[in-house]
Amino acid sequence: MIISLVFASSLQLLGFGMITMGFALAIVTAWYWKSARPETEALAPLEIMGERQFVSASDDLKKQLLNSVRAKPAIEQLPGTNNN
Description:
Elements: H1 2-35, H2 44-49, H3 52-55, H4 59-69
């Protein structure tokens, strides 16, 4: 009888410990999500370069796609010029 009481109390303690660890993990996860830095605008062209549309596009369309996600276009294209 004493062994079963000791086993039950240790099992109960283990259960409470696991629940406490679960709450602690949830709090750490929420803190991590809140403190994580957002993606900068400088990385937006990399996302575009990874798309299938970009790979199969012409050079002019590639410039247009890249400039569409940039705050300030880095590749200036003069009207009437063709840089192929």
